[in-house]
Design brief:
- Helix 8 crosses helix 10.
- The protein is built from eleven helices and 21 strands.
- Strands 1-2-3-4-6-8-10-12-13-15-17-18-19 form a 13-stranded mixed sheet. It has a two-stranded parallel ribbon with strand order 5-7.
- By secondary structure, the chain is α/β, with parallel strands linked by helices.
- The structure holds 2-acetamido-2-deoxy-beta-D-glucopyranose (NAG) (6 copies).
- One 2-acetamido-2-deoxy-beta-D-glucopyranose binds next to loops.
- Keywords: Leucine-rich repeat, Membrane, Repeat, Signal, Transmembrane, Transmembrane helix.
- This is LRRCT domain-containing protein.
- Pfam families: LRR_8.
């Protein structure tokens, strides 16, 4: 109607342009023939809709995400051939929104997409990756097959993906990792298998992944690790085995992982660690074993991991952490960024923990110091009279412990981004018998004979500096006049003994 207002010449011109346009459209249709542009699927009954980015024009889209609806799509569906309308796709993602809507990997269409770099399928009912599924899809660099129903990975399932660097198979039901599954993946750096049902890892299962840097096997059903199951992973830096069912770890389990820096074993059921479990892990810096069932640690457990500077043993049932355990890594724990967490265990307040005083004094790391300052142990009542004096101070000056932890919370700059959940832990309620170990002077730590044998006697005598530390601890914490009086009493006692 607006056209009426424009001059007749212009109107004619507009009509001419319009017919030209129609002509061009017709020509384009001829080129593509019957093929539908997947970026412009208009059919209401279509089983697939794709949202394209960059451009919708034929062969111009770079990235597309396709939803599968309406009962799903089978192998014979003519729609698959429509993917040839976008031969320059670099990213293609399928999101299946219909139960059983996609039960196979559409590998035929993938072979047309010579520039495909990133491929993903989610929520499909695919339950098996057949051998040679991805042959001639070698341009893909990142593949995500999360939240499908995959139970089985056949041998050579990922064969010929020579540029694949990241493979994500999270949240499937994969039961077993077979030896020849991850075969011919020379570029693979990250393999994610979180939240599956992996129970068996065959010997040499990862043998061909010589360039793998990260392997996530957390939230699976693994109960045993054979010595050969990590063969070949010579470049692996991070191994995540949290939330499995591992109960026993044998000597040399990780012997092949000589570049590993981070080993996460939290939330398993580990109660036995053979003395040489960690042998070979000469580059290991971080070891976490929290939420397991450890009671004892073999003396030389850390002899093979002399680079260890971050150790988490929280929430086990440990009764001892001896100077023999500590010795191979003691110097590392003095360094700036190190930490050692031992909370939530069954330690008695006795002389085998005397090393904590020394380390607290020598550590540069705020985390180490804070952790030691807040460390609680159980004090049994069968102790000597000297200790009774101390007990009184402790109960009058609880402020001390709180004050130290407040200070620690204010220090942000040392927060380690790799470290999870320290803050999430519910604060443990302090039991009646719990005492802050560092508030007990070394020479007042009970030293029953069976404990003496695991104690380095050189640590039981406080140095001048340590005596100064106690004095500071006591003075800063004593607010009530009774506190001061008793502190002075204790201090005199200390100086007498020193
Ligand atoms: C590849 O696709 C996945 C899933 O669609 C996405 O999370 C990821 O960021 C993509 N990667 C790149 C490099 O585009
Ligand atoms: C892969 O490509 C090669 C060479 O182009 C061809 O001979 C072979 O048939 C292709 N394989 C598949 C499974 O498409
Ligand atoms: C693999 O990646 C390299 C480097 O990015 C590239 O030159 C090569 O063409 C890719 N191979 C395939 C089959 O796309
Ligand atoms: C593997 O992929 C390459 C392209 O990177 C191709 O040339 C070769 O034929 C493929 N190998 C097999 C056995 O299909
Ligand atoms: C995991 O695998 C076991 C057999 O290995 C099977 O009994 C169990 O049902 C599977 N669990 C899930 C959640 O698929
Ligand atoms: C773990 O494996 C055991 C034995 O193979 C099986 O009975 C159990 O159902 C599995 N657990 C889960 C959560 O699938």
């Amino acid at each position: 109607m607006r056209a009426l207002k424009v001059p007749a010449a212009l109107l004619l011109l507009l009509i001419a342009i319009d017919s030209l346009d129609a002509n061009r459209r017709k020509q384009k249709d001829k080129i593509v023939q019957t093929t539908v542009n997947i970026c412009e699927i208009g059919n209401r009954d279509s089983k697939v809709y794709c949202y394209c980015e960059n451009s919708q024009e034929i062969n111009e889209a770079i990235k597309t995400e396709c939803w599968v609806f309406n009962g799903g799509i089978d192998k014979a569906d003519p729609l698959w051939s429509s993917f040839t309308s976008q031969m320059n796709l670099e990213t293609l993602a399928f999101n299946v929104r219909s139960d059983g809507g996609l039960s196979f990997v559409p590998n035929k269409i993938l072979r047309y997409l010579r520039k495909l770099k990133n491929f993903s399928i989610k929520f499909s009912s695919i339950n098996k990756i057949e051998s040679y599924t991805f042959v001639n899809i070698s341009s893909v660099q990142e593949m995500t097959l999360t939240k499908n129903q995959i139970t089985t990975l056949n041998k050579h399932a990922f064969y010929n993906l020579s540029n694949l660097t990241i493979l994500t198979l999270d949240a499937n039901k994969i039961k077993k990792i077979e030896t020849e599954t991850f075969y011919d993946l020379p570029a693979l750096q990250k393999l994610f298998l979180t939240s599956n049902n992996v129970t068996i890892i065959e010997d040499g299962a990862f043998r061909h992944l010589v360039n793998l840097l990260e392997l996530e096997l957390d939230k699976n059903n693994i109960s045993t690790l054979n010595k050969e199951c990590f063969d070949g992973l010579a470049n692996l830096k991070r191994l995540d085995l949290r939330k499995n069912k591992i109960a026993v770890l044998n000597s040399f389990t990780f012997i092949e992982l000589w570049n590993l820096q981070e080993l996460l074993l939290d939330y398993n059921e580990i109660y036995i660690l053979a003395q040489r479990t960690f042998d070979g892990l000469s580059q290991l810096r971080k070891l976490s074993l929290s939420h397991n069932k450890l009671i004892n640690l073999a003396d030389g457990l850390f002899e093979g991991v002399r680079g260890l500077s971050a150790l988490d043993l929280r929430n086990n049932k440990l009764k001892r952490f001896t100077i023999e355990n500590l010795r191979p890594i003691y110097d590392n724990l003095k360094l700036q960024k190190s930490y050692i967490y031992l909370e939530g265990n069954d330690f008695d307040c006795d002389c085998h923990l005397a090393w904590m005083h020394k380390l607290r004094h020598e550590a540069k790391s705020i985390k180490v110091r804070t952790s030691l300052e807040n460390f609680l142990c159980k004090f049994s009542h069968s102790s000597n009279t000297q200790f009774t004096y101390y007990e009184k101070i402790d109960s009058k000056s609880n402020i001390n412990g709180d004050k130290l932890s407040d200070d620690a919370d204010n220090i942000e700059e040392f927060h380690d981004e790799n470290e999870e959940s320290f803050i999430d832990e519910p604060k443990k309620v302090r039991g009646d018998n719990d005492r802050t170990l560092l508030q007990i002077p070394v020479e007042l730590l009970p030293c029953p004979t069976e404990v003496k044998s695991v104690t380095d006697r050189t640590y039981t005598y406080p140095s001048q500096n340590e005596a100064k530390d106690y004095r500071n601890l006591i003075i800063t914490s004593s607010i009530s006049p009774i506190g001061i009086n008793i502190s002075v009493l204790l201090l005199s006692l200390l100086l007498l003994l020193g």
